[in-house]
Amino acid sequence: MAEAANGNNGAAALELDREAVLAANRALYEALENGDLEAVEAIWLGAADADDKHGVVCVHPGWPVLRGRAQVTRSYMLIMANTEYIQFFLTDVEVEVQGDVALVTCTENILSGGEPETEGELGPLVGGKVVSTNVFRRTEDGWHLWSHHGSPVLTSGDDEDEE
């Protein structure tokens, strides 16, 4: 009977971890949408949990591997400074928790705006898809992003012609 109770407690704890990791994952994308660099930095592992040179790793689509908080933070600063508007619609979200590490895979359906032709107007909206892998680590103050890897999904645009 005690084993069944421990099994239920373990399943409940695992579900709480899954929910916490998914909340941290959502917080990343919300911070990006809001252009909140401080919030983005807070989601990544801090200096106490990862050294600046090798602690965190990020690969944006089409970018080289970025290592360390300084490079990763700079990349997000550049993205935010050069993106007029961005919105993420996450699909195919899956999470796996193993001890103090969690893996989230998802498809980022991205809607972003370019520079407007006329000042004071909105620029054209552009859509794209990126498949992402986000690796989180549990720390004393919750789950934090350890690694992000995004790869573009290439679409031919010929799907309609094939039907």
Automatic annotation (TrEMBL):
It comes from the Bacteria. Pfam families: SnoaL_3 (PF13474). InterPro entries: NTF2-like_dom_sf, SnoaL-like. Residues 21-153 form the SnoaL-like domain. PANTHER family: NUCLEAR TRANSPORT FACTOR 2 (NTF2) FAMILY PROTEIN. This is Nuclear transport factor 2 family protein. It comes from Kitasatospora camelliae.
